[in-house]
Design goal:
Layout: E1 2-9, E2 18-25, E3 30-40, H1 42-51, E4 62-69, E5 78-82, E6 97-101, E7 105-107, H2 114-119, H3 121-134, E8 142-146, H4 151-162, E9 167-173, E10 187-191, E11 204-209, H5 214-220, E12 223-231, H6 244-249, E13 253-256, H7 268-276, E14 286-289, H8 293-296, E15 304-307
Parallel strand pairs: 8-9, 8-11, 9-10, 11-12, 12-13, 14-15
Antiparallel strand pairs: 1-2, 3-4, 3-6, 3-15, 4-5, 5-7
Helix pairs in contact: 3-4, 3-7, 4-7
Length: 311
Amino acid sequence: MSTRGTVLRSHGPGEQLKAEEVELTAGPGETLVEMRLASVTPLDRSTLSGRQPASPFVPGSEGAGMVVSSDVVEPGTPVVVRGEGAGVTRAGVWGRYAVVPNAAVHRLPPSLEAGTALALMTPALTAHTAVRRVADVQDGETVVVTGVTGLVGCMSAAIARAAGAARVIGLVSMDDRADEPNGLVDQLVRVDGLGQVGRELPWCDAVIDTMGGPVTGGVLGHISPGGRIAVLGYKAGEFTTIDLHQLIGRDLRVLPVNLQRTVLAPDAVGQALAGIAGTSWRADHDVVPADRINDVLDRPAGRVLLDLTTL
């Protein structure tokens, strides 16, 4: 199917993007999406700084919209677009319409708004990778999530539930005054600055550790033989002490979570969004008209979404 639509195109590194009308045609294995919103990500900025594969080029590696035509998704289905080189090695989603590979199209859960899904994409994928890919949480397991009141920790608890965990225990520091996060945990346990936890922390099969530091070494003593700890943060410190007798004697695994070296599975985006869909989330982001893209490209911090309906 073909359509004409306005897109934002870059004609070279350092040049301002221009709104131009083009013809878009979806071929075999491709989906035509009517775009509504798109993220402005560090990857987009990096691509525009000199890594774009062609000139002119349509950037945009993450977006949300409605399917117009596809051989895998029904027309009218709300979707999120991410992956398969969109906005990096092939034309992206910064336009009124976008043609993308079928595998880059992921259904948007009904309980998630498009803006929320895009704003939470990165932490959701981080939590999903830690829980599903690295720790490989299974049905019936007991999972401990450290730093569970933080965004990634809270998402990790939600995704562990979605993965079938029988019990989810949240671990927080003594000075964390936050309450139990959204009812996602069965028990909240405090840990001191030395990583010492009381006997109230039960044995578990897996730990998702967002805190690091002495907490990492402290929770190792509560992992059942053959269990594992997936480490993805170190806000409590970059160094820890590991009891090698425990590590070897109980056959424990310490597993780093590194998204830069992890190739996401084709269904990772859909699974990550589905895993957090049952919980209400607060997503801080700014929505700006697409024609203001040149004003926000250099913004150093904050999540920016483009309103593509203004093109």
